[in-house]
Amino acid sequence: MRYSEKGLIFNVNKMIQPRKQFAQHWLKSDKALNAIVQAANCQETDQVLEIGPGTGILTRRLLPLVKSLLAVEIDRDLCKLLVERMREKENFLLLQGDFLTLDLPSQLTGFANFQRQNKVVANIPYNITGPIIEKLLGTISHPNPKPFDSIVLLVQKEVAERLYAKPGSRTFGALSVRVQYLADCELICTVPAAAFVPPPKVDSAVVRLIPKKIEIPANDPKRLENLVKLGFASKRKMLRNNLQSVIERDSLTQLLEQLEINSQVRAEDLGVAQWVSLVNIIGNQLETSN
Asked: Distance between the two ends of the chain, CA-based, in angstroms?
């Protein structure tokens, strides 16, 4: 087992309790843990990234199945606990720090077996789910240049519903479009609050994201990002009203009709492919008018 730290000293014997500041809720359900491991479909050649391993309950199940596991934990006391529990595991590397700010490539210099994670498996803090997913997938305008084979996450149920939502549903929103542009999303299972210590105030769900090749990319990905944000700014309004700061309502109505889309459509009624087609034709219209 290897451990990268910053000259920190820990009290090994003290009892470690979940900390609210890190939104820690530790999974205790064998059923949920088994579902996560099964969804990850780990192979002996896989190099796995785990964000927020906590006490290592999921880590210990994954380690025998994979070539290597890189864990990133922000809690210093938990890092010491993990060191004690995993010290004999040569395929385990622990980094102490904030996943959102860590530059993993620079941290992994000299650790050849841990430099190319191809899968992510994690029970992530709910208060930073969006930023974590963005760092893993990238954005519409800047996708991750080295996408993972799969990303299995335990997240808040409400967020999970938005990730795999279908167009026209009440949960389909800007996050749905941004994620589904980059990856296929699948619900694995729901997890009740009672499966955690301490129990959160909401239920959770396991989802699997499979980054994909963008078959029909937007001509201007940045414009797509901006118009999706504008389109969902007021979900109850028709799209032609939300986008009128970019394109006149009458012009947008004509473009929607060209695409055989109802002119009274709202943002959540359009699937990802329709969003791409609409933004591409809007871009052509704006360039022609200029």
From this structure: 61
